[in-house]
Amino acid sequence: MKFRMVGWILLSISIPIFISVGVSTARQGFSVSGFRLHQQIEEGHQIFQNRCAGCHVVDTDDRRQLKGPSLEKIGEIAASRRPPMAALSYILESVVKPDAYIVPGYSNEMPQSAAGGITKEQLRSLIAFLGSRGADVDVKTLTSLDMPDPLREKPPAGLIRLSKLENGLTLFDGKAKCATCHGLIKDDNNELNLIAPNLSDAGDVPREQLIQKLRDPTKHLVRGYETSVILLADGRSKVGRILRKDSKRLWLATIASDGHVQVEMVPMEAIEPDSEKPSIIQQSQSIMPNYSSFLSTEEIEAIAEFLSALHST
Q1: pLDDT tens track of the chain, all 313 residues?
Q2: CB under 8 Å to 4, separation ≥6 — which residues?
Q3: Are the C-beta atoms of 99 and 112 separated by less than 8 Å?
Q4: CB-based burial, 22-36: b 16+ in 10 Å, e otherwise
Q5: Do 263 and 289 meet the contact criterion of CB atoms below 8 Å apart?
Q6: Across the strands, what pairs with 253?
Q7: Taking every pair of C-alpha atoms in the chain, what is the biggest distance, in angstroms?
């Protein structure tokens, strides 16, 4: 009997407490969706601190002048940026496509991969946090936002350029065979200077011009490096760059079968006498290949990137 009495007392105490808590929660306006929104805003705040706080402020009392515009009331003013785009939609676009709208007075410096490396739900939390700056977040609107697929985090620009430089050097020495004719070190005794221009200061030329030279070398043929065809009296011919010529002989820079540059002296008497056609024919066509015929656009740009890093000292 005593045991039952205790059990009744415990039950009678616990029921009012449970009911009291339920009433209190209802009065405060808490709900499952409201609690989840609170969690999202907190998570979004942490994401902001880790990824965005270096360029933007969100606190009213933070008066630092950073590279990006202040976001302390972005939830309030976002709807006026690109009407009729809703506030949360604008905020989402600003994160995933930062160049879609540039705030007056600021430049387009926000990285295109700003949302890289975070999940769709993390991105939604970030939008919730930013949307709460100066305004209330509508849960239904937030939930209905179409989050893009996660972006892969892009490596820093310095690493991208280093990768291009390494790829460009590999192509220069290998597939493109540029190193067969062009030297990269400023050296007057380099035999390659006899057959093609030295590229030790190629970086002094604008990158776009380097790309054009690779795509159409004949159009950008360097004066003094024209190739000539020498017709010999015995019916053979030689092809190379004429280095020097006098009344008795000429000196011709050619590429030997082993890939090395060699200088040949050709006696004038060995050259077919001029008759109806010239025996020394200067070519208007560059011996440098048209790289666009066997290299991709990315490969040509990689070689240009490598060359643009070369500067004589």
Answers
A1: 444 444 433 334 444 443 333 333 333 444 567 788 999 999 999 999 988 988 899 987 887 888 899 999 999 999 999 999 999 999 999 999 998 999 998 888 888 778 877 889 999 999 999 999 999 999 999 999 998 876 655 555 555 567 788 899 999 999 998 988 888 887 766 676 788 888 988 988 888 999 999 998 888 888 888 889 999 988 899 988 898 999 899 999 888 777 678 888 999 989 887 666 678 888 888 888 888 889 999 899 999 999 998 886 6
A2: none
A3: yes
A4: eeeeeeeeeeeeeee
A5: no
A6: 241, 263
A7: 137
Residue with tokens 């380099």: 190
Is the backbone peptide bond immediately before 148 cis, with ω within 30 degrees of 0?
A: no
- Provide the 10 A C-beta neighbour count for residue 221: 18
50 and 116 in contact (C-beta within 8 Å)? no
| Nearest C-alpha neighbor of 54 from the set 109, 103, 120 | 109
Q: How far from chain centre, in Å, is Cα 237? A: 48
> What is the C-alpha radius of gyration for the chain, rounded to an integer number of angstroms?
36
Structural contact between residues 88 and 6, judged by C-beta atoms closer than 8 angstroms? no
Q: Which two tokens stand for residue 129?
A: 């946090």
Amino acid letter, 42: E
